[in-house]
Amino acid sequence: DAGSALPLPLTSLSACLGSPLPREGLRGYLMEAVPANACHPIGGPPPSANSSRAFIALIRRYDCPFSVKILHAQKAGYRAAIIHNVDSEKLVTMVTNVEEIRRQIGIPSVFTGESAAKLLRRVLGRPSATTQELRTHLLQGS
Fold this sequence. Notes:
Number of helices: 3
Order of helices and strands: EEEHEHEHE
Number of domains: 1
Low-confidence stretches: 1-6, 126-142
CATH architecture: 3-Layer(bba) Sandwich
Structural class: alpha/beta
CATH topology: Glucose Oxidase, domain 1
CATH class: Alpha Beta
Strand order of the largest sheet: 1-5-4-3-2-6
Largest sheet: 6 strands, mixed, barrel
């Protein structure tokens, strides 16, 4: 339902792997990754009769390489990933030196600060909420 979409301006940095962000931003249903750090395979989005419906994984930083997190989101069926910092607003560029993994990653992903993750969780309604449609306009960080 397009009427329930929430525009959210978020400061972020696009990853140096995977596909680029669409010019118009990302639009889809946000789900928090389980496990939250996505260092192991994560649960996928719910099955949908509407194959055009995109799901975006919200993933916590640390504990394993960014490329592993993004690849787990992609393999679980997410169309994009938002990885957020923990206790910091510092933005970092997500890269990988592992060519084999880099070639496998096809989804867009961005890195945001902790406050953006808190805002996204408020949109979800509570940290364990299942899905909430949102539209993100991801802005290039400085």
